[in-house]
Structures are given as structure tokens and as C-alpha cells.
NAD(P)-binding protein (Paraphoma chrysanthemicola), 988 residues
Amino acid sequence: MASKLIAIVAGVGAGTGAAVARKFAKAYPVVLLARKPESFESLANEINSAGGKAIGISTDVSDASSLKNAVETIKKEFGNDVGAAAAIFNASGPFLRKPFLEIPPEVFAASLGVSATGGILFSQTFLPLLLNGVKQKSEHPPSLIFTGATASVKSNAQMASFSTGKWALRALSQSLAREFGPQGVHVAHAIIDGVIDIPRTKEWLQGAGPEAKLSPDVIANDYWWLHTQPKTNFTWEIDLRPAIEKW
Amino acid sequence: MASKLIAIVAGVGAGTGAAVARKFAKAYPVVLLARKPESFESLANEINSAGGKAIGISTDVSDASSLKNAVETIKKEFGNDVGAAAAIFNASGPFLRKPFLEIPPEVFAASLGVSATGGILFSQTFLPLLLNGVKQKSEHPPSLIFTGATASVKSNAQMASFSTGKWALRALSQSLAREFGPQGVHVAHAIIDGVIDIPRTKEWLQGAGPEAKLSPDVIANDYWWLHTQPKTNFTWEIDLRPAIEKW
Amino acid sequence: MASKLIAIVAGVGAGTGAAVARKFAKAYPVVLLARKPESFESLANEINSAGGKAIGISTDVSDASSLKNAVETIKKEFGNDVGAAAAIFNASGPFLRKPFLEIPPEVFAASLGVSATGGILFSQTFLPLLLNGVKQKSEHPPSLIFTGATASVKSNAQMASFSTGKWALRALSQSLAREFGPQGVHVAHAIIDGVIDIPRTKEWLQGAGPEAKLSPDVIANDYWWLHTQPKTNFTWEIDLRPAIEKW
Amino acid sequence: MASKLIAIVAGVGAGTGAAVARKFAKAYPVVLLARKPESFESLANEINSAGGKAIGISTDVSDASSLKNAVETIKKEFGNDVGAAAAIFNASGPFLRKPFLEIPPEVFAASLGVSATGGILFSQTFLPLLLNGVKQKSEHPPSLIFTGATASVKSNAQMASFSTGKWALRALSQSLAREFGPQGVHVAHAIIDGVIDIPRTKEWLQGAGPEAKLSPDVIANDYWWLHTQPKTNFTWEIDLRPAIEKW
């Protein structure tokens, strides 16, 4: 039965999402969701070549019909009674760090579309699979994990096009933790408070030393740790930051 | 010059919005925004009959073009260089207190449309008028006040279709407070933590005594107090609840 | 009856405490508590000369017997059935902004002695008088107001000798608000987030303009506003900061 | 060198402290601190019999001289240059859940003495050993972990004699995390939000099922997970509660 349990990761790219997918692929077939195939193709190949199982599905999490298509593809691949051991929402929309009055409404719409609406639609789509995972007596409680940021708890000047969606996502995760915890699904929220060490940030914080940025592989370990917590000891929220970070 | 300064209230109906409009109408011409004319017509008449000045404009705050129309109407009425002494966002979208998986995505969309997108569009529309108010040396710092709720700081089970938007709105208010405070605009957020005493809640909390519900007139006084704070002492956030409330 | 209602202010000096005392002296006889007579003598004279009524009592709020003496003095002056309309705890202990390992334990003890133990003892001493105020049907709900600081909600590096006591005091105020609100006493906490404009800070923030510091007189107005809130609309917490403050 | 690294656990008894000590004893010699020898004697025997190394020292964490004696004993046992890999503060003072005005000041003093003063003195005593652990290049960053509770973030009516100390302790942990993180010491705070499954609570929550209480062994695993986080990914705070807990 455990063979039916999969892990879904939304928002795979060069950073946290990919690291999380690699980590969970050691235990489960993984479904990689991203808008563009180039975001998941090489990762899926890598996992499949290493003896794991991964499929990528082009998906726009802010679009209900796109998520519906994703589920149909998943069921074709893994069966109609597929259960999920983990669903990880790591997607973020675009935003602008600019004076509020200079930000086009479309930017807010796109950011809220992913962080708020996307989080909601992703949860409505995959919670039934996670509840299936509960029925199938998964080894670890099925887990729904959301990636947050500094802007999930602090809304700085000029950051509203990011923070509005991130606060909404945190609210979602807290409500779901309270509703689905008693049903056996572990809902958690991780506040990533710092720069993550990925290709795009290679030039950042030069000179601050090799430990000035968060390691995506360690974030993946932390998500795995959340996933393995038993029902007696669920964590809703963790914060993660480099030791030298000012906060 | 002060004659050019107006107050705008979005979300007038039978409760807080109307009380706030009445209060601010004692000092400023007021613009009443609501989707349906029946929400503001009798209130506008009442204020105008009492010697104040009020106009109502049918407006959907979740729709940029509707807000654009509202501003054009305002400028026709009060001049192109109109400034605002206060803009109060008291609108809320519909929501359902139900199991998460039973809530149609449209409900989330409508709720976020008002609380998140509506708050953003309202702010982008009226902050220029508030900044005009600063230039015109308003007696009190021009104020942008948002109405929050218990669900702005606590996201309970089955409340996600309300709390996601309310957390987003609170994030917006915090970011704007930090950006526009130094420019002279006072941005504040009020957490209304309890049942408000309005016709719709008449039958609620019967037997708990006459002080078990929040008075909308007193909320209006509290908003006026926020409005009159000088630049040395700005409050971003207040909570308001009946003395007997459990929290 | 109202003649029996007094206001007590602990921690009067050159700043907030004195301003609060002056403000409340317009409505009530005030009792000024400070360790050293020089902290309250000229203030008491000023209030008495202006037609108000003030008495000062040398009191160490961290010492139960000293507070007991204060109450005896108060009862001698105002009668055994004296009620209080307001009790304002504005005292703070000494602290050091220094590396944690360089701070003598005595500094922590003194700081906790005032902010934590002092807050507790002050409340145990004067809540009976405030409850008496409820019985005597005071015009405004008797109010117990605590002065907090930035360090009440954020505990920065090297600030532990201040923040530990301030967090304890905030916890006290929240618990008391929940317990005594239903009994008619309004318990509130004010987060003063910035530099207050007092003689000691005269040279601070020079060049940042006349509005860079909090006005103690306006803080006093804010406390008075809290005091006049009716039982339908109690605020537990407000924050106060200059418009230009970074936060 | 690693042989010099020890773990110190304050507040060992039948629950979390003992489980944490057992867990850390698999990697380090452990020092068990409790006021009464009967709290640590059988645990020390158990660990020593199982091939680990444990010593117990009668210590009152609210008393600086008692902690000084503890350090002297430790240095006699492990050498003057002993370093610590972990120091875990799990002590709590007595408190009363009662109307505020019925709680003797001595109860507040005892509770603050352990949670606030005890936390401070424990940290001042053992941070030098943790910094020694940094110098000795411990495998995992030396960790200072504090046990919090629901009352660390929520201060309910009648709970002030517990929450005041717990909020102070949380403030301490946040300040120390900010000061000592950059120096290589990982400071963390765990909010234990529920009933822990220990002999004393055996009769509690009967009928709510075997997963209604927190497992102390799993709390110990969670602390170990915190301890093994590398410097790129430090968590300051986690919450822990049973899946079925209402919160």
C-alpha cells in the first residue's frame, strides 16, 4: 500500500523546491509542479536516474483548472486511490520592492494569485490525497508544508506586494493546522528568514563567509524532520536563519 | 484650504461604516462608498439634512476601474486638487465558516478580492489624496484607517476564507504605516474583537447584558481619536473588545 | 461619591509619569509614587498650586511593605473606603545595554524587581481600590494602565536586562485584562516605541526635527483616552511612536 | 577533545528533563541539575549502568552561589577547560492558577526566581562553557535550549504567576539567540503547548486516546534535532503540541 503514497512539491526550481524534492524522493515517488517544464525537467531526470521516481507536470497553482489537470495526470500515473505522504507548497509569485504607489496592480494580483489563491487551491487539491494517506496508514503523518519568509511575519515598507500574500498564506496554514491536525494531517509553516544559497544569490553576501546563507539541503532536512514528527508532537511553525543573521 | 479636505469611507452599511461616516461628517464632507446605493442613500440624506455634506458613490473596491470612476466623481464634486483628511477602509468580503474542503474557490476569491485586493486598490487610489492633505496642512495628520477583526491575528479552523484576506490587509496596513508615516500620513489598523451591536446582531448574545457587544458609535470615536493623534505619537494598531469578552 | 475616587501614578519623574499625573489631576486627586521625594515634590506643589490635589509618597514598588505603607497613607488621607479611578504603572528599573556576560546579576535583579515584581505588587495593592471604584460607579471604568516599551515586544541583543522585565510586565497586563475586564476594571498596556522628549533626551536625535520624539503630554492624552473608553469598547494594547520612527 | 564536551540539563525529574538527559547521554557525558537528589539519582544510575556517563548535582538555579558550586563540581570532574555541547534549561517554578488577588507574593517570587532569574543565572553560568565548546570545534554548534509553554505566548486569566516568568524567559532566549548566534552558539526556545505524558498526568485526558499527550521522548528527539542544526540553518523557536490539541 505504501507504494501508492507520493510526495508533491509545488515551486521547484534551482533552490529549496529542488532540494526538498530530492530529499523526499528518497522515500516516495515525487510529483514536481512548476509552470515551466525547464524548471523540473532536469531534476526529474536526475531523480529517475538515481533510482528514484519523479514526474513533472506543468502547473499554474493560481489556476484551479491547471491543478485539476495535474491531479488527473497524477491519478493516471499512480491510480485513482493514490494517497499523499507529503505536499509541499514552495511557490512564490513575483513582487516589487518599490514605493507602494509605483507598483502596478497587476503585480499585487500576480503575487496574491500565487501566495494566497495558489496556496488555497493547492491545499484544496491535495488535502484529499493527504487524507487518503491517513487512511492508508502512512508511516509518518501525511504532511502539508508551506514555505514562508521574513515577510510572513514582518511587513516592511515597500514590501507589501510580497507580504500581503505571505501573511495570507501563513493564515491559511494556521487554520488548516487546526482543522486537519485532528484528522491526522500535519500542517506546518517554515519562516525562511535570510538569503538562501542558490545560483541566483551566488554574488550576494560575498565576504560574510560560507555560512551567511541558508542551505537549501538543510532546509530539506528540516522539512523531512517536520514530516517525521509523530502525532503526539506536531510543530506548526519553525523559523530558520543563518547564525550570523541580524533579526 | 481646509474646505477642500474630505473624508472617504468604504464599506458603509448599518454598522461601523455608518457610525464612522457620521462622526467624520462633523468635521469634513464625507464620501460614502458601497457597492449598492441602498447602503449609503439614507445615510447621505441623514448627514446632508443634519447640516453636513455627504455624497454616495456606488463602488466595488475590488475593481480598479470602479475606484477610478469614484475618484473622477470626487474630483468633479470637490475639485481636481481635492485633499483627504481621512480614508477609512471598512469593507469586508463574504466568507463561509465551513470545513475547508467544502468552500467553493469563488468564496475565497470574493473574500480576498475585497480584503486583500480591495485594500490595496483603495490605498493606491486615495493615498495621493491623503498626501495632498499633508500638503494642504490639514489640522490633523491625514489618516488611513483599516478595520480588522479577531481573524486578523488568529486564524481558526474553518475561518480561512475570512482570515487569509484579513491577514493580508493587516500586512498591507503595517507596510503602509512604515512607508507613509514619515511622509505625514497616519496609517492605523483596528482589531475589532467581538460582536458589533448592529441590527443584524440584535438577537445575538441576548442575556449577556447591554455591554456584551461593541458600540459602533464608540468605534467611530476611537477612529476619530486615532485621527487626531499628532505626528509625535502615532498608533499603528489598537484592539477593541467588550469588557466581558473572552479572549 | 466621586470625591473619593483618586488616581495613583507610580514612576513620576521628569517625563511620562509627570505628564500623566498632570492630566489625571484635572479630574481626580492624584497620588504620586516615587522612591525619592525629589521626584514628586515640585510636581505635587505645581498641581496643588494650580487648584488640583496631589500628595507624594516615597515608595519602592518592588517592596511589598513599602506599598503597604503607601496604602495606609492614602487611606489616612482619603478615607478607608477610598476608591481609585486610575492606577498607572510607569516605573522602570535600571538596566545595562551590554554584552550579556558582563552584566552583574544585581542589575537583572533590580530590573526584574521593578518591572516584574513591582508590577505585580502594584497591581495587588491597587486593584482592590479600583474594584472599589467600580462599586462607587465611577464615571469612566477604573483603569489600570502599564507603560511598556519597544523592548516589551522585541528582545534585542544586549537588551535582556530590560526586556525580561518588560515582557513579564506585558504578560501581567494581558492576564489582568482578561481577569478584571469582566469585573469592570479596564487594564491596558502601552508600547512606547521611540525616544520620549524629556530633559534627559534633549540632546538626542538633534537634527531629526521637532517631531522625532514622543511627546509626554500626548502620551498622557492617550492614557486619558484609554481611561475614558466605555465597557463596550476596551483596548488592551496600543503602540505609540513618532511618524518618522523606523520600526 | 570532543571527550571534554558535556551536556547540562537543569530541571530533571520524571518528564521532559529526564528524557532529554537520556537522549543527550548517548552522545555526551551529562550533568543533571535538580534541587533534590531524588530527582536525579536513579536517572544518573540508569545512564551510568547503560554505559553512558552522568553526574547529578543538587542545584538551585535561582541561587547564583548554588550554580557556582555546580560549576566547580563540573570542573573537578571534567577539567577546568571543560566545554559544553548543550545546556538545556527545563526548570519551572511553582505557580497557582487562582484569582490574582489570592496569590501570595511569595508564589510570584518563587516562580520568577526560577523562570526569570534562574534562566538568567543558568545562562550566565553555562554560556562560557558553550563558548568553550565553539572553540573546541564541537561537531554540532553548542546549543542553549529553553523549555517554554503555552503560557510563554499567551497570558490567560489567573495564569500570571506562571506566565510572567515564562514571558521573561522567552525574552531572554530571543536576546541571547541574537547575541550568541553570531558567536556560534545556537539558542532555541520550545513552546510545549499541551499536556506532557508523565506519571503525574497519567489520569489526565483519559478517553482522548493515546495520542492526546506530548511524548517526552519525542520532545527529546526534537531538542536533539535543534542541536544538530548547522550554523546555516538555526531555528530559534518551535511549537510542539498533540495533533488533536485545540489551540
Q: What stands out?
A: The mean pLDDT of chain D is 96. Chain D has six helices and seven strands. The longest helix of chain D spans residues 105-135. The first strand of chain D starts at residue 5 and ends at 10.
